[in-house]
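Case 366 in the screening queue. Each case pairs one protein sequence with one candidate compound; here the compound is guanosine-5'-monophosphate. For every case the pipeline is the same: read the inputs, emit a complex structure as tokens, and attach any notable structural observations.

Predict complex for case 366.
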Amino acid sequence: MTQILSGVYLDYSDILIRPKMGINLNSRRDVNLQRVFKFKHGQTRTGLGVFNANMATVGNTDVASHLLARGMFATLHKHYSTDEIGHFLQNANVPLDNLFLTIGLKNIDDDIQKLHALESEYGWTKSQNICIDAPNFYIPKALEILARVRDEFPNSVIMAGNIASPDICLKMLDYADVIKCGIGSGSACLTRRQTGCGVPMVSLILECADVAHSVSGHICADGGIVDVGDISKAFCLNSDFVMAGGIFAGTDESAGDIIEKHFQTNEIVDGHPVVCVKYFKQYYGMSSEYANNKFAGGMADYKTSEGRELQVPYTGDIDKILQDICGGVASCCTYIGAASVKHMSKCATIIQVHNQLNKVFEKYSV
Ligand code: 5GP
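Case 366 output:
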């Protein structure tokens, strides 16, 4: 018999972090945003656990460089050629310890070859980081490929996903260091509409972190970040890392095309309606028809598109958002008495709410 799990599964918009008395800090400057990550398979990395999504629009070298320069983590998408990645590795003027190169399941032989070529030709080393990305890590060959990648790269930090249940985490952590959790939450995602599948992020983080941490694994909460405050929520819930795409999509640094649109306003000057210009950037899901046409020679006839193509408002310099992230996380720490990001989950009290934001003047914002 089909069963319905009792209890409500919650998303970021269903909760808030309750401020409280504790060892509160006098200034956000006193908060340590850097965390030392000791990974299950031996490596150590230090940084603020925020990643850009490994998507063609925001998993580009420009976005990655800015996150790395801010002491965060970064991915490069899997559609870069060996030479393009090699050029970046040799010319980037940021530390590359926290950079993850993405590989997929579909062309795994070619992708492994690419990593070997980067090692022999461009100085990438086997102790660097790999992200194995699949929309659905439940297919049996995903685990086989993960085991094979671990075998070929025993000293790498390996992040793998995506999944949306705790049951698969232990198996994956035999080979992976970080499990990428989140199905259906992304802003360019259609999986929930097309398949009915998905799990809200808050409950998913709680379930997966509990299992992963019991065996010294880590998790990365991927998708669904709407406001930078959601990143603090994820850390308070015990997620080690957060991955986001949409919040970086409108920036100068994203790879999406810039789109100029002209709107007629209600204002009349000299008998003519005033026209205003607004700018947007293209953002598309990696399972969208657009991405399938661009990278896979079209949509296969047995598939439905699980992603969409969007035009998101242009937001300018990415550093503004990165500053908001650092400032937002530091401020959250001062509200809950956490001296560092590492302590957020220990200090946080989470409340379930019906209404998290006051949106009364939202449509008037400039
Ligand atoms: P966002 O931060 O925009 O809410 O979510 C980014 C995440 O959405 C990505 O890291 C990835 O996990 C997911 N994603 C990207 N493209 C697609 C897609 O086409 N379909 C689905 N279902 N998820 C996608």
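Case 366 observations:
- The chain has twelve helices and 15 strands.
- The radius of gyration is 21 Å.
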